[in-house]
Write a structure and sequence with these properties.
Layout (H helix, E strand, L loop, with lengths): L1 H26 L6 H26 L13 H38 L1
Subcellular location: Mitochondrion inner membrane
Subunit structure: Component of the mitochondrial contact site and cristae organizing system (MICOS) complex.
GO biological process, one term: cristae formation
Length: about 110
């Protein structure tokens, strides 16, 4: 009986964790528009360092200082998303071109 219940419990725990993570991400506004996502990112950047310091003190860990970055993570993220979406938008056209070139090459080989 126990071997049959363990996979079910394991599945339910994983599903609960995934569902909870999605709920938190949605409730914090990370799945909404760009401006709301940027606000949520700023909010997380403000709240995370004090929380990490508190946990480090609680466990007695000594963590190095977080390096300061001089670039906008949002702009790099947005450029990556734009590049990916652009590549996906031209994929059917490129696949058609490559198929036509392949057929032309095969016909030339047969002649």
């Amino acid at each position: 009986m126990a071997p049959r219940i363990f996979p079910l419990v394991k599945f339910l725990v994983k599903g609960g964790l995934a569902g909870g993570a999605i709920y938190v991400v949605y409730s914090q506004g990370l799945l909404s528009g760009g401006e709301e996502g940027a606000q949520a990112l700023r909010k997380a950047q403000e709240a995370l360092p004090p929380a990490v310091e508190e946990w480090a003190k609680y466990f007695g860990w000594k963590l190095p200082a977080v390096p300061k970055t001089e670039f906008s993570l949002c702009s790099y993220w947005n450029s990556g998303v734009r590049t990916t979406i652009g590549a996906l938008s031209v994929a059917p056209t490129r696949a058609s071109e490559y198929t036509q070139n392949g057929w032309k090459y095969m016909k030339d080989l047969i002649k």
